[in-house]
Design goal:
The protein is built from 20 helices and two strands. It is mainly α and 496 residues long. The protein has a domain of 197 residues. Strands 1-2 form a two-stranded antiparallel sheet. The relative contact order is 0.10.
Length: 496
């Protein structure tokens, strides 16, 4: 019998995380095996649910039998289901990469897998919940365990990065909680569909205040400028697979929350114009900062911020073309950035100072890892025949449809900047004399498998984009259909 209950996506990793120490007492290798089995199962049921999802008929789960708006509900729809499927797929690949724990620079698999499973559970919860306060709770779960993963190496730099993340994360929590408090006082409900119906009665000034609080709080989670100071330190100091998880999963849940609130819950005049401005500022700040970086992982972190800014700009158009482009960019960012961080993990592990200049000649001494990084670099800048090309192309088409030609010029400018700093790394990998005193750490078989799967997806979608375009179109239609979402969650409510 096919499992059709999305609650498994949250309950299973939470339960497993708390039972993992007990499994370790019974048989120590289970610490590494059990998380993989759980992630594989979640990936399987997410693909199964999503591929069999009937358009316009999302799976609605009422927790404890209480129907919304009084009870908490989970919504697995074309939009949320797409993000959940992406998260579970990447969670499984991160586990595959991390399986031979001691060979990739870690020293405590029990803590690592426990924190990773809790972060994944929180990220999925943010996406699935139909309750605004429950979204806040899952954001907190995600953040708390992300702080722990950032400080996993226990060094001074890692602790400093985690503390900076904690400060900004706490600020995000305060803003979001204040927004929810004011919102509940105005409408008397926490269900997002019910809020969407009643939000029209909120005083415009109060609605603007609530929107600003949400915008700032969720903007921190979505890596928006100037509230993204935690990103470069966290991404560069956390272990390689953790940085990949942050880019592939954590950032996606943050941008999902931001988009869901302003597309579905709150309709505020001018919010998409503000999102456009902040997205453009995020792109400019991040791309030019990335070009100045000397450390590979910090360069990738700023590049990730720039890509998130591009996603914000796409969604700011508030058109179907913009949403489609934004979803394609989200998919590419998740897959390609995960590959870049996973491959960079072994590249920097084989250097002393983890600087770009230390990578001279690595194309010869670490051919597979360098090839994976090069493939990711070509894809993220938008070169064919890789998936990144179609994301950038759809972004340019959506921008042209919105008659924002200055945005097209800016996108093309930062694309050139992106090519410059990525090709600088490629040049050092393949066209410089290799260092003599290098302690090579070649990737393990499981790391090779994880990176190869990501590379196949990038090439496959690049050659045949129709593999995902139908699903992106369905997700676009679902997000754009606010009335349809409300009717699905509250079927007995009349919107007339």
């Amino acid at each position: 019998m096919v499992i059709t209950d999305p609650v498994y996506f949250i309950a299973l990793p939470l339960l497993t995380a708390f039972l993992l120490p007990l499994f370790g007492k019974i048989y120590k290798p289970l610490i590494g095996i059990i998380p993989g089995l759980v992630f594989a199962f979640l990936a399987y049921i997410s693909f199964d649910l999503y591929l069999n999802l009937v358009p316009g008929k999302p799976i609605i789960i009422q927790m404890a039998g209480w129907a919304p708006p009084w009870g908490i509900n989970l919504v697995f729809s074309e939009f949320s289901g797409l993000i959940v499927t992406l998260i579970t797929f990447l969670a499984f690949l991160v586990w595959v990469y991390s399986y031979n724990f001691k060979k990739v620079g870690f020293d405590n698999s029990k803590k690592y897998f426990t924190l990773l499973m809790l972060m994944v559970a929180g990220s999925i919860g943010v996406v699935l919940t139909g309750d605004i306060f429950n979204m806040f709770v899952f954001l907190e779960i995600t953040a708390i365990y992300s702080y722990g993963l950032t400080a996993f190496y226990k060094g001074r730099d890692s602790a400093e990065a985690a503390f900076k993340y904690l400060l900004l994360g706490s600020l995000s929590s305060v803003f979001i909680l204040l927004a929810i408090l004011l919102l509940y006082k105005q409408v008397g409900t926490l269900n997002m569909a019910d809020i969407a119906v009643k939000a029209q009665s909120i005083d415009p000034k109060m609605k603007s205040i609530i929107a600003i609080l949400f915008f700032v709080g969720l903007g921190i989670e979505a890596e928006m400028f100037p509230m993204n100071g935690w990103v470069p330190d966290a991404y560069s100091q956390a272990p390689g697979p953790v940085a990949a998880s942050f880019a592939g999963m954590l950032a996606k849940s943050g941008i999902y929350a931001l988009i869901r609130v302003f597309y579905t819950v709150l309709e505020v005049k001018g919010v998409f114009d503000l999102l456009l401005i902040m997205g453009l500022l995020t792109i400019i700040f991040a791309e030019f900062s990335a070009m100045r970086q000397k450390h590979l992982r910090r360069m990738l972190a700023y590049s990730s911020i720039g890509q998130m800014g591009l996603i914000m700009v796409a969604f700011s158009f508030n058109t179907k073309a913009g949403i489609f482009a934004g979803l394609f960019l989200m998919f590419n960012h998740a897959i390609i950035k995960t590959l870049l961080f996973l491959s960079s993990g072994f590249l920097t592990y084989s250097t002393k100072q983890k600087k770009i200049r230390d990578l001279d000649g690595f194309g010869k001494i670490m051919p597979f890892t360098s090839l994976m990084f090069g493939l990711g670099a070509f894809a993220i800048v938008g070169l064919p025949p890789f998936s990144g090309f179609w994301g950038k192309l759809n972004m340019l088409v959506a921008t042209a449809d919105s008659n924002l030609y200055f945005v097209i010029a800016l996108i093309l400018l930062v694309a050139v900047v992106e090519i410059v700093y990525y090709f600088k790394v490629i040049g050092r990998l393949y066209f410089r004399q290799q260092h003599k005193d290098v302690e090579v750490h070649n990737p393990t078989w499981n790391a090779i498998l994880a990176m190869s799967i990501l590379a196949i997806v990038i090439i496959g979608v690049g050659i045949y984009p129709d593999l995902i375009t139908d699903y992106l179109t369905k997700a676009t239609n679902e997000l754009f259909d606010k009335a349809g979402y409300i009717h699905s969650v509250l079927p007995n409510l009349s919107l007339n």
